[in-house]
Amino acid sequence: MGLVYLGRSEAGRTVAVKVVQTEYAGHPEFRRRFAREVASARRVGGSWTADVLDADPEAAVPWVATQYIPGPDLHSVVAEDFGPLPEHSVHVLAGRLALALRAVHEAGLIHRERRRAFGIYVAVSGGGSALAMLTAGFLLQAVDWRVGLYASVPLAGLALIVVLTLVHDRPGRTGARLDVLGVLLGSGGLVLLTYGLNEIAGVLVGASLGWTEPRFLVVLAVGALLLGAFLWWQTRTSSPLVAPYVLKDRSRVGGYLVMLLSGTGVVGLFGALGYYLVGVQGYPPIRVGGAFVPLAAAIVIGATQVSARLLHRTPPRVLIVAGLVTTVLGLVLLTGLKTDSGYATQVLPGTLLVGLGTGIALMPVFALAADAVAPQHSGGASAAVTATQHLGEAFGSAVVAGVLFAHLGGSEWTGAAMLRGCTAAFWWAAGGALLAALLAGLLVTAGRPEEE
């Protein structure tokens, strides 16, 4: 697509001049892409990246000139001329490469490997939830259900060991003052909201009107107040957990709302489909867990093979809306389930569509959360996504339980009554996903992320 010429300025400075080939110079879309690349390269600073010396993307034959240091490439040095580099040289090379990549990321550009990392994160997050259903089914069938409640304890211990062993701070990183009040307000608000919603879901399934229980309403109100106080405090403290500018970005806030509502929709699928397979089809717990494995595979494909490959060419809004609409189609298919529906012919197609759409939609949301955020604030911005997802899942559990109980009423838990409740829950989940798609279309206005 382009030819690179090496030259030397009158002052003796070596430069690399990239010239677009004639057959591409006449394509308007390619010229726009080249202009974006030049503008992105100009934004990158730092001592270990090549500066743009001059460029003319509007010329008849667009070109760009950058710094260039003559010398052999790394493959020639290692594989052909000198063999493996000394340890000190490897350390220096890796350090300078890290500084160059940091300059790229600080400019708000997305590296190809970073896109893949977001895709893998969504695959692990969403796919892990689906695979957890398989583990839960095994525990319920193999051991007492009380033992299953403690299954997360060894997993948390394993995660702690991995973090302490493999995750290290960067050398020379300056410490920041911990916002203790922010931790207490934010964590307290999330804990109370999650606890209240989970208790409402449990009470509703136990045939009691949990939404009207005063004690639960008080817990939810206090949790909401604490969360509101947390957001206010972040605008006042000198070392916020979530920097105020993070929540002033329209597209990022839209992504948070999408995550909140999509969490509701996904849990709606888990809850309603689980009740359907157990209460209507009579599946044993281990088989119910196995029924969710294709969902995990579809999430992985949607996040890593579709969304991650299209993000640099497609605005996030398009991917989010397309993924959520696909999720809605899958949920609508599941509303047509009957008491004698087959898994392969009716349950599986809807499940695959929901998984594929979820993976496609959520990957750009995580990319939006970290886009144009300073490195010291990226952790808080990403944590806000996880918090909204967790809160959406808790709300989804309460909604599914409420819808099921409302349709069961005082009747016995027969297959027909369960089917009515599950169908209504699928419609509610589809409505949540459709509302998320509408908000994404209105609020997410960011263009496609620039890429190195």
What are the key terms here?
4-stranded antiparallel β-sheet; 4 strands; 16 helices; Growth Hormone, Chain: A; elongated; 452 residues; 3 domains; Phosphorylase Kinase, domain 1
What report would you give on this structure?
By secondary structure, this protein is mostly helical. It folds into 3 domains: 2-67, Phosphorylase Kinase, domain 1; 74-103, no CATH class; 113-169 and 239-443, MFS general substrate transporter like domains (Growth Hormone, Chain: A), CATH 1.20.1250.20. It has 16 helices and 4 strands. It has helices at 22-25, 28-43, 74-81, 87-106, 112-142, 145-148, 152-166, 180-205, 214-234, 250-280, 285-291, 293-310, 316-334, 343-370, 378-408, 415-443; strands at residues 2-8, 14-20, 52-56, 63-67. The protein has a 4-stranded antiparallel β-sheet with strand order 1-2-4-3. A hairpin with a 6-residue loop joins strand 3 (52-56) and strand 4. It is elongated. The two termini are 17 Å apart.
Topology record:
Blueprint: E1 2-8, E2 14-20, H1 22-25, H2 28-43, E3 52-56, E4 63-67, H3 74-81, H4 87-106, H5 112-142, H6 145-148, H7 152-166, H8 180-205, H9 214-234, H10 250-280, H11 285-291, H12 293-310, H13 316-334, H14 343-370, H15 378-408, H16 415-443
Antiparallel strand pairs: 1-2, 2-4, 3-4
Give the structure's gist in a few sentences.
By secondary structure, the protein is mostly helical.
How much helix, percentage-wise, in residues? 55-70%
Mean pLDDT over the full residue set: 79
With strands numbered from the N-terminus, the spatial order across the biggest sheet is 1-2-4-3
Q: What best-fitting shape do the alpha-carbon axes yield? A: elongated
Radius of gyration, Cα only, in angstroms?
Answer: 26 Å
Largest sheet: 4 strands, antiparallel
CATH topology of the largest domain: Growth Hormone, Chain: A
Q: Low-confidence stretches at least 5 residues in length (pLDDT < 50)?
A: none
Helix/sheet category: mainly alpha
